[in-house]
Amino acid sequence: MLTDQENRPARPVSGAPGPEWSLASGLVDYEAAVAAMEARVEAIRAGQAPELVWLLEHPPVYTAGTSADPAELLDPRGIPVHKTGRGGRHTYHGPGQRIAYVLLDLRARGQDVRRYVHALEEWAILALARLGVESGRREGRIGIWVDRGRGREDKIAALGVRVRGWVTFHGLAVNVNPDLKAFAGIVPCGISEQRYGVTSLAELGATADMAALDQALRATFDQAFGR
């Protein structure tokens, strides 16, 4: 996970009632989303905007985090590749995957990045549980995983975090019904062992759609992050 703590003065927001929630319509270009997040981070730091949870989908794109190894980009197959400032390695975003960008002011939440990452993981686990999917963390492997039996485990949600001046951005990607074949173009998050793969709610047989996941994320947010 990448943290980018800049020591420029900024006025903390105290006693904030909780984040604003925004649901994007259509597919949001990845670079445009990053630019929008960076602008909002500065506004939050300056006390000019509330925290934000931004739910969206991207067009097909591979993103390379700060720890990405070029050798793990196997076959992009015409899908654009963007270097990004979030922590982590290569991942895929595309239609059918819920992106939850989380912009929180840690100055009002304890200034603890590890605690924040734990809460982000817990949020995904709680939301998936509401949809009937049992998932969890795995030692040494980033993301949220489901047990497929006979020693196989698949990732259903990926995390990528950046923190600037104690304000978080980037966040969580949960596979609802994306094109799972697209993950074959990379080594997802640097994990290449055959017994570890990628799955989705649809592949697991869950009946939940994107709207149901959004409702679950909204319902479990305060439980994971507090107020």
Summarize this structure as a short list of keywords or feature phrases:
eight-stranded mixed beta sheet; alpha/beta; 11 strands; about 20% helix; BirA Bifunctional Protein, domain 2
Descriptive account of the structure:
This protein has a single domain, classed as BirA Bifunctional Protein, domain 2, CATH 3.30.930.10. Strands 1, 2, 6, 7, 8, 9, 10 and 11 form an eight-stranded mixed sheet that branches. Strands 4-3-5 form a three-stranded mixed sheet, with no helix packed on it. It has helices at about 30-45, 115-130, 210-225; strands spanning about 20-25, 50-55, 60-65, 80-85, 90-95, 95-105, 135-140, 140-150, 150-165, 165-175, 195-200. Residues about 1-15 have low confidence and may be disordered. By secondary structure, the chain is α/β, with parallel strands linked by helices. The protein starts with 19 loop residues before the first strand and ends with a helix.
